[in-house]
DNA sequence: ACCTGAACACCGTTCAAGT
DNA sequence: ACCTGAACACCGTTCAAGT
């Protein structure tokens, strides 16, 4: 069953409008999203039955990019260097995307973590497996452990980011490394 | 200016009602809090002008207890043992309190972290200073670093808590320790 | 001074009518 | 099939009247 072209276009308009509005202070009002997209309230509701569905659509794309990056880094670098670089990119994504998005909806904080068994979890598992095979990583941590430990990224403030994040990532990587 | 006794009593009733309701699934409805407390809507609003003020009142007490604990542990144990034990208690508090409370209000996630320069930050600084003096801790991390790294605690699920948290705390402490 | 609770305002959700 | 937007419902906030 192919999607009608106007439906597909409207879906894109909604996501675009939400992407713009979510960076603004205050809540993300669904009525404002519909208005900015130039659509009726009911149309928004047809595409995204809850606010959570809409917010999830916003960050799904970012997760796909992180997954693709893990594959590429593993092909180009040693396991520990790949993990180190991937963390740095994760940090950059978290700063811009997850922080802003999740500030809108408390339940999303929960769901990003719960989603780990998906593609993101597999990508991270690949990184960890390579590192363990090399003997540089603890052998008792899994991908969910690492996702959990990375939550701090969502709470670092803009103005302290540059000074604090490299050190925090170093502490975390140190803790994951075998002595 | 002393508080009128009925006002003090009502304030306590509100906090008590909110404490009970916040553990239930779904949002914390202010109207439900007023109803359970047996008070009018306006009375709730007089005491707590925003939902955030109410939620903050709920976890302020918990923070006080953590602060007192840090002092006591430093008097009774070696610096690294004190830090280790304090982390374990922090984990227990985070599990029961912060996770439930912050799930209700996204902005609270933000504010718990921003509050670090307060009493909690001082208590943690005392722990870190003692550890550094002993030469067991990295000398470039501060109390806010540790608070940020502890955020994972709020995202561990009930059923995985026992298996995962000890390992995650070990990774974190390992990262904070000098090699 | 503080409390009450009905009235108001805001915004998410629904649905009858239109294309 | 999908879209529109007015109507509805829910809940946070306010305020005139009461104690």
UniProtKB/TrEMBL annotation, chains A, B:
Pfam family, one: TetR_N
Keyword ATP-binding: no
InterPro entries named among the record's database cross-references: Homeodomain-like_sf, HTH-type_TetR-like_transc_reg, HTH_TetR, Tet_transcr_reg_TetR-rel_C_sf, TetR_SbtR-like_C
Domain HTH tetR-type as annotated: residue spans: 8-66
Keywords in alphabetical order: DNA-binding, Transcription, Transcription regulation
PROSITE patterns per UniProt: HTH_TETR_2
Name the UniProt record assigns to this protein: TetR family transcriptional regulator
Organism expressing this protein natively: Mycolicibacterium arabiense
